[in-house]
Specification:
Number of strands: 11
Helix content: 55-70%
Strand content: 5-15%
Distance between the termini: 61 Å
């Protein structure tokens, strides 16, 4: 729960939040792994109000995966015990199966396959319960179906286990031997067909892979699965069907993008087989005369303690600082900036996941829209884009926000370009302000005026004030999070008017504020703030302020 946000994390939580609001967008099939996973998140949130308890959707999603991990551990423990494993061997299985949740960067990884694990274990628990009741069989089928929808590779694991059980005589069918042979051949053909289809259907299955996993780790884990499966098939006749299924499923997806899903889905089986192997090796160790004999429980218990101790030490050494965890600060800062700097009616086009975070932070669903959504009818209201990473070419960057997995930029994809006449008007007004003997400017303000890089609305007001009584322009400060250059200045700090310093409660300050409040659009400032340094005048962003002033001219 304390880990820093990983690349690609939070997609399921975002989709689940949008589903809970009834504003899901995009081609997200309800029966796809992502669609079923998002439904899990939405149902869990409805029952627990998890979205109301966290300031970040990533943290809310991690709670669900923590609950799924705990449920998987309990189900694996009970299933291992019913398969004949002792308490120490079952403990080894639980510890090994829980490694992704204990070690970064796999901690509470949010892919649909992680949610499939508890459903798969529930199906296995009901199957090996020893009481083959009708309710248990129906429950196993339902749980297995949900697991397949979340991770289609579960179907490969089930088909390979069924084929192995038929071939080894663990699941005999009534009738002659040819019936069992035919069933095994049909199921085997289904396994091969499924492996081929899933390998070519990786985009639709949506297995994006586990983020930030070091190179070589998936292949190393797959090799460990093959070794455990082969050794268990040789040493453990009672568990041979599961061992064969582990080997067959791993081999079928070894060169596929589905391998990472297989590593998660098959991990409980590999852990249980590893615990059973330790127990078997301990039972098979002969006692030597003159030496103290060790019981099965003591040997396996030592192995469990060593494994658990190593995992805890590795987790303690590699776990990130608690202050790095996701907090939702970026969406909150973006919304605060938009409230202060954008006019009423502005629309933000935001990618699905970030849109969910913004809505969770309190954004208006009518103002924060998915990409491609139609904007409002007001042509003066800007339609802006929130881009993750580098903004598109030709876009004007209004603000940047750091702190998430990637920088977020608020950009105008089609900023207005002043005509030659409008640009000439800007230069004329700026030159007149600088030439007026009653104008005083700071170094930065003088440079901005010489380049005429000032919003036409603000420039017109400054020109009127200069002609009225003369002003002192201390600076043109940029809004918070905005770049220092690239856009016309929309804010000006005035430190004198009519030769008098502008200070709080001063007569010159009160007169200036009254004059500014009397202005009409589009020249009326959106904000007038009296500070110890002077009066700060500000305008909200519009895409083409020059055209706005031109349209307002008589």
């Amino acid at each position: 729960m304390r880990a820093a946000e990983r690349h690609g994390e939070g997609s399921l939580a975002a989709d689940g939040y949008l589903r809970s609001l009834g504003t899901a967008d995009g081609p997200l099939s309800a029966l796809s792994p992502e669609g079923v996973g998002a439904t899990h998140v939405a149902v869990y949130a409805t029952l627990t109000r998890v979205f109301d308890r966290y300031g970040s959707l990533v943290m809310a999603g991690r709670e669900l995966f923590m609950v799924a991990t705990i449920a998987s551990a309990l189900l694996l423990w009970r299933t291992a015990r019913r398969l004949g494993l002792g308490d120490p061997a079952a403990a080894v299985a639980v510890v090994l199966a829980g490694l992704p949740a204990l070690l970064p960067p796999l901690a509470l990884v949010d892919v649909p396959a992680a949610l499939a694990v508890p459903w798969l274990l529930l199906a296995g628990f009901l199957t090996v319960s020893g009481r083959s009741t009708r309710a248990a069989r129906i429950g196993a089928v339902l749980a297995g179906t949900v697991a397949v929808l979340l991770a289609p590779v579960v179907l490969l694991l089930a088909l390979s286990a069924a084929v192995a059980s038929l071939v080894l005589g663990r699941a005999p069918l009534p009738g002659p031997r040819t019936v069992r042979t035919t069933a095994a051949l049909l199921l085997g053909a289904g396994f091969l067909t499924g492996a081929v289809l899933l390998r070519g259907w990786k985009g639709a299955v949506g297995t994006a892979g586990l983020p930030d996993v070091p190179d070589g780790v998936p292949g190393g884990v797959a090799a460990a699965y093959l070794a455990i499966g082969c050794l268990a098939a040789w040493r453990l006749p009672a568990l041979r069907s599961g061992a064969v299924a582990l080997v067959a499923t791993t081999l079928a997806t070894l060169a596929s993008a589905l391998l990472l899903d297989v590593l998660l889905v098959c991990l409980p089986a590999a852990g249980a087989l590893a615990g059973a192997l330790l127990q078997d090796l301990s039972d098979a160790a002969p006692a030597r005369p003159g030496t103290a004999t060790r019981s099965t429980a003591s040997v396996v218990r030592v192995g469990a303690v060593v494994i658990l101790g190593g995992v805890c030490v590795a987790a303690a050494l590699s776990w990130p600082d608690a202050q790095a965890r996701p907090t939702g600060r970026v969406p909150t800062a973006l919304l605060a900036w938009a409230d202060d700097e954008l006019p009423e009616g502005a629309h933000l086009l935001v990618p699905r996941r970030l849109r969910a975070e913004l809505l969770h932070a309190g954004a208006d669903a009518d103002a924060v829209l998915p990409p491609g959504a139609p904007a409002g009818a007001d042509p003066s209201a800007p339609v802006l884009t929130v881009a993750e990473g580098e903004p598109p070419d030709g876009a004007a960057v209004l603000a940047r926000f750091e702190g998430g997995e990637a920088p977020i930029a608020l950009v105008d994809p089609a900023p207005g370009t002043p005509t030659g006449e409008e640009l000439q008007r800007r230069h004329s007004l700026a030159a007149a302000i600088l030439a007026n003997p009653r104008t005083s400017t700071g170094e930065q303000a003088a440079g901005v005026l010489r380049s005429a890089a000032v919003d036409q609305r603000l420039l017109s007001v400054l020109a009127a004030l200069t002609a009225r009584s003369g002003i002192g322009i201390a600076a043109f400060p940029a809004p918070p999070a905005a770049p220092d250059d690239g856009l016309p200045a929309r804010r000006a700090l005035l430190d004198s008017a009519g030769g008098e310093e502008l200070r709080p409660a001063g007569a010159a300050t009160d007169g200036l504020v009254t004059w500014l409040e009397a202005q009409r659009g589009p020249f009326a400032p959106d904000s007038v703030e009296v500070t110890d340094r002077g009066v700060l005048i500000g305008y909200r962003y519009v895409s083409d302020p020059d055209a706005l002033v031109t349209r307002s001219a008589p």
